Amino acid sequence: MNTHESATLLNLTLDGQPVTARAGSTLAELLAQHPSMAELAPERYATAVDGVFVARAHRVSHILQDGQAISVFQAIVGG
């Protein structure tokens, strides 16, 4: 990988596993492209970036930054 290519990739963690994404990627794009998420409907899980909850509606506009940690967990509703 040359220097230009490495500058356009983000190094992230997804549920503790290292992943890469292109610079400018949104949380929704990362999740849609990741094989472990392919079979899950977006409404069936919740997400957090660096420990901060990201609502499903905001995933498409949440731009990822290098070094961030993404957590995916089962959404729990109740009363």
TrEMBL record:
Q: Which InterPro entries match?
A: Beta-grasp_dom_sf (IPR012675), Mopterin_synth/thiamin_S_b (IPR016155), Thi_S (IPR010035), ThiS/MoaD-like (IPR003749)
- Record NCBIfam families: thiS (TIGR01683)
Q: What is this protein called?
A: Sulfur carrier protein ThiS
**Superkingdom of the organism of origin:** Bacteria
What CDD domains has UniProt attached to this entry? Ubl_ThiS
Q: Name one Pfam family in it.
A: ThiS
